[in-house]
Amino acid sequence: MTKFALQLESERTLELLREIDSTPELAQRHLAQKCNISLCKTNFLLKSLLENGMIKVYNFKNSKNKRAYIYMLTPEGTKTVFELMHKFCECKAREYERLKHDIKEFGQAHKETLQAVDRVARVSR
């Protein structure tokens, strides 16, 4: 997966990178559960992150579980986390402003409707 394709998955990629950063020893199954994505999708994203140099994967050689891995962010991965966080925050700020505007408009429309209903109620008394 190219960096462009990873950016299309930016929210999931960000979530996965943040989990890896906070708990690098999590197994893929646990990463999938914590990020609320399928195990297959988690594996796909991890492979893409590895191919793009954003993470490194280490095997615990002394572990009884030979499939135990630790995932570590590379400097490129850390940079990507910051870039994705910035984009995510910008997007949420725009969404907040849109919602604030919509709520204000809804409140105004609701107020006008209530005033019209009140006028009709007064006339019919």
Characterise the protein shown here.
The chain has 125 residues and is mainly alpha-helical. The protein contains five helices and two strands. It has helices spanning 3-8, 10-22, 28-35, 39-51, 75-124, and strands at residues 55-59, 69-73. Strands 1-2 form a two-stranded antiparallel ribbon. Helix 2 crosses helix 3. The longest helix has 50 residues, at 75-124. The N and C termini lie far apart (70 Å). The relative contact order is 0.12.
What letter string, H or E per element, gives the SSE order? Answer: HHHHEEH
Q: Which whole number gives the mean pLDDT?
A: 84
The helical percent reads over 70%
Beta-strand residue fraction: 5-15%
Q: Major sheet: size, sense and barrel closure?
A: 2 strands, antiparallel
End-to-end separation: 70 Å
Count, helices: 5
Strand order of the largest sheet: 1-2
- What coarse outline follows from CA principal-axis ratios? elongated
Q: How many whole angstroms does the radius of gyration measure?
A: 24 Å
- The number of strands is 2
Work out the oligomeric state of the chains in this entry: single chain
Q: Helices and strands: which structural class?
A: mainly alpha
Unreliable stretches covering 5 or more consecutive residues: none
How do the helices and strands line up, and which of them pair or pack?
Blueprint: H1 3-8, H2 10-22, H3 28-35, H4 39-51, E1 55-59, E2 69-73, H5 75-124
Antiparallel strand pairs: 1-2
Helix pairs in contact: 2-3, 2-5, 3-4
